[in-house]
Amino acid sequence: MLFSIIIPIYKFNSHIRKSIESAINQKFSSDKFEVILVNDGSKEDFSRIIKKFKKFNNFKYFKLKKNKGPGIARNYGISRSRGKYIYFLDSDDYIKKNTLKKFNTIIKKNSVDLICNNFEVKNLYDRKIKNYRFDLNLLKETKKKIINHYLELSIIPQVISNLVRKEIITKNKILFKSDVYEDIFYFFRLVFITIFSVLFLTFYYIELPHPGELHFHVPDYYLYAIPISILIGLLFLVYFAVQFGEQNRKRKKAFDKIQEIMAKENELLSLGGQAAAAAHSLGTPLSTILLTAKELKKEFKHDNKLNNDLDLLVSQSKRCSEILKKLSLNPRINDEFINANLNLSDYILEIVKSFREISKKKFEVNTEKFTNKITINKSPEIIYGLRNFIGNANKFTKNKIKILLFNKNKSTFVKIIDDGKGFPNDLLNKDKLGEPYIRTLDNVNISSKGLGLGTFIGKTLLEKNFASVKFKNSETTGGAEVLIEWRDKDLRKI
C-alpha cells in the first residue's frame, strides 16, 4: 500500500460526501491507496455515507468512543493506516482527481519524506477566497523541525495539504495534539509548580559569597511582597488564559453556526433557481389544463355537479398561474395580504381561509389564550413558512387540522396538529427533520415519503425571522405536531 488518506469527521455537513468522493475517485490504481474515515466520537448518524462508500475495497471506517479533537482522530487514523505515505484531508476539503498520480510521479524520481502542496480556499458558492503557499523559509530548517511545524503544531492549513512519509511520524513520535485550549488543567499544573518554586526559593536559599562590608540587607516586607506580586500576576495570567480559551470556544461555535446558516442560504438559493426553472416549464401545461377545463365547462354546462368541479379546477389553475408568474417574473410582487400590517392571528386565519376553499378537511383555529397584539410588518417569509406547515398538515391529515395560538413567558406560540400518521420515527429520532432531500426508511409511513423540501423551506424561512421550530408526534392524535415559537421582543423586530 502506497498512500493512506485520513479524514477525521465529527459534525455532519454538506461537504463530507464530496470530500470522500474526491479521495476515492482518484485516477490511480485502487489497490495502491486506502481511505480511512475516523469518527471523532460524534453522535450523528453517518450510516448512509458509510454504506455508499463501502463498495470501495480499501475504504475503512472507525469510530472513537469519546470526542477528543481532530488531532487525536488523525493519530488513530495513522495507527490504523497501511500506506507508506500519509495524506490528511478534512471533511470540508477535497482534492483533485490526479493528486495521487502526481505524488507518485514525484516519489519515483526522488527520495521523498514530505511533499507540501499549495491550496486555495473557496466560499460556499465555490468562489476562490485565498491562496496558501508553502513557506520557503522553512527549507533552512532541519527535516525534523519541518515535519514538526507541519504536523505537531496542528496548524490546519499546513496539515491538510501535505503528504508525509509514515516512517518519519512513527520513528520520531510526532503526533497531533488535541485542542490546546481544552487542556486548561495542564496550564493550572504549570502555574502551581511555578508558584511553589517561587515561594520555596524565597525562604529557602543559599546566599552567594560576598565581603562582609558589602553585605546588603533587604527589608523583611520585600520577602513577602515579591512572591505575593508574582502570585497576583500568575493569578491574572490564569484568569485571562481561561477567558481567552472560553472566548475561543465561543468564536468557534459562532463560526460553525454561521457556516450552517450560510449552507442553508445556499440551499435556498439553489431552490430559488429550481423554482424559477419550474415556473418557466410548468407555464405551458397549466395553460393547457386551464383551456381544457374551460372547454369542458362549455360542453357540460347542464351538468351542475361536474360544473362545480370544473369551476374549482379553473380557479385553482388560475391561482397556480399567478404564483408561477410571481416566481418567474418578479418574486416581490405583492401577495394577497402580505403587505398588510396584521396581527399573527389574522395571518393564520387568512391562510386557513385559503385552504378551506380547496380542502375538504376540517380546520380548527383556537386563539382563546392568544392576547398578543404585535403586528407583523411586510413579512412574506413568515407567511410562506406558515403556509408550508399548514399545507403539509392538510396533505397528510385524515380529517382534522388543529391550530393553537397562545402566549407564555413573554413568547408567542403557534402549534399545528394533524391526525395523520405523524412524522417518520427514524427522522424524528435522528433529528433530520428540516433538512432538504431526505427520505424516511419507516415502513409505517412509507406512503408519506418525500424529499423534505417543504419542511426545510418552512423551517428556514421562519428561523430567518427569529422563530424556533420543533417537531414531534402528538400524544393525543398520534399525528404530526409542529411548534413554532417567537420571543415577543424578536417578534417586534420583524
CATH architecture of the largest domain: Alpha-Beta Complex
How helix-rich are the residues, as a percent range? Answer: 40-55%
Counting copies of identical and different chains, the oligomeric state is single chain
Q: How many strands, which pairing sense, and closed or not: the largest β-sheet?
A: 6 strands, mixed
* Unreliable runs: 152-158, 179-186, 330-335, 443-449
- What is the gyration radius calculated from CA atoms? 32 Å
Could you give the order of the helices and strands? EHEHEHEHEEEHHEHHHHEHEEHEEHHEEH
Structural class, by secondary structure, is alpha/beta
Strand order, sheet with most strands: 3-2-1-4-8-5
Mean pLDDT: 76
Number of helices: 15
Measure the end-to-end span.
59 Å
Number of domains: 4
User: What fraction strand?
Assistant: 15-25%
CATH topology of the largest domain: Spore Coat Polysaccharide Biosynthesis Protein SpsA, Chain A
User: So, the CATH homologous superfamily of the largest domain?
Assistant: Spore Coat Polysaccharide Biosynthesis Protein SpsA, Chain A
Top-tier CATH class of the largest domain: Alpha Beta
Summarize the entry for a quick read.
The chain is of the alpha/beta class. The protein contains 15 helices and 15 strands.
